[in-house]
Amino acid sequence: MNIAVINSGSSSIKFQLFCMEKKEVLAYILVEQIGEFSSHTMLKYADKKLEITSVLKNHHDGLEEIIFLLSKYEILQDFTSLSAIGHRVVHGGEEFKNATVINAIGHRVVHGGEEFKNATVINESVIKQIEALIPLAPLHNPANLEGILVARKKAPFVPQIAVFDTAFHSHMPEEAYLYALPYKMYEKYKIRRYGFHGTSHSYVLKKTAEFLKEDAGDLNIITLHLGNGSSVCAIEEGVSVDTSMGFTPLEGLIMGSRCGDIDPAILIHMQRELGMSVDEVDTLLNKKSGLIGICGSNDVRSLIELNDEKSKLAIKMMVRRIKKYIGAYIALLGEVDAIVFTGGIGENSAYIREMIFETEICGTVLDKDLNNKNETVISTKKSSIKLMVIKTNEEEEIANECLSVLKLKV
Ligand code: ADP
User: Fold this and answer.
1) I want to staple 84 with a disulfide (CB 3.0 to 4.6 A). Which of 172, 239, 350, 402 is the partner?
2) Is 380 helix (H, G, I), strand (E, B) or coil?
3) Which residue's alpha carbon is nearest to atom 12 within ligand 1?
């Protein structure tokens, strides 16, 4: 049984093909610079890696290229033979608490999870709802939707499932997701904390449970997804009860180019006193702040190597913010079984992990040796909380969601 996962961005498509029985990735394809002068495609399959330059005008051409390559290299001859296609959708608003079926063979209007018992004929309503959520995620949802629409055209009878980055956080309590704004801002305009990276936090929770031979529903853990975009999640008995990203992925930690938490009055000041436009403020906060804003680069690995004053400062600021969140989430959860690192920085940077746990946080003790070796458990036996590293795999989580929503067995 083969399942494809599509992560469609504004000018890129990340594609993975899974053989579910063998738990094997049959192909990984990354199409970049869609709509530009020349586009770049990278295909990895078996032990091979290919790079191709071509002109791909839009996402339709991008997916055509993917289908063509799968057939040319005899990885998948018939795209319509897939058992399911899973799509990453960044914002699911309050509507989508589960992975959701967009269309299934001869069926439609199917909300995922429990409700997927009697599939009905194809429904545009999920697509309309994702469209309606565009104002909440203007950078992400249009691109995600584009991928869905193109894939539906290419494989109209293959079940397609939307998996939302927000879904894992949809059970946060009111006191966690509400902002202290007039209540009607929530009621009328849905201004609230949604949280993102949910697919990754959820995957890491399951893998942690597997590793510890525990039930995920019994675990209290703090997951740190540290990449270009970063977020922390407090998970109580397997449920996300708080997370650092908010109404948008701008809140929380200091990220590659995003500022994370700042005094909201700074935005007013920038507009009122400095005469900046809304778009200028938006670009400044999302694209020119964070590590880039402080030292000119968002690449943590090269900042560590460079080690000049500004790079050191940027990293110190990032680490300090991470520590503040860890402390806060330990206070929220009370008992914590593990603090788990993931994402490009979390998985690979022993240096950053060591900076975070240089001094004990509530009795945590890092084992420097295990940390340097990137072991799964990087704390000593004495540590009050296990410190762990788990490699995330959002695409695998999406493929597994497809299985469970469609109630397919491998
Ligand atoms: P994205 O959020 O775009 O998916 P990633 O999760 O791939 O990003 O993380 C990218 C970040 O991880 C970059 O800042 C990169 O420098 C950092 N990174 C990757 N490997 C290492 C490493 N060995 N040491 C330090 N930082 C690393």
Assistant:
1) 402
2) coil
3) 344
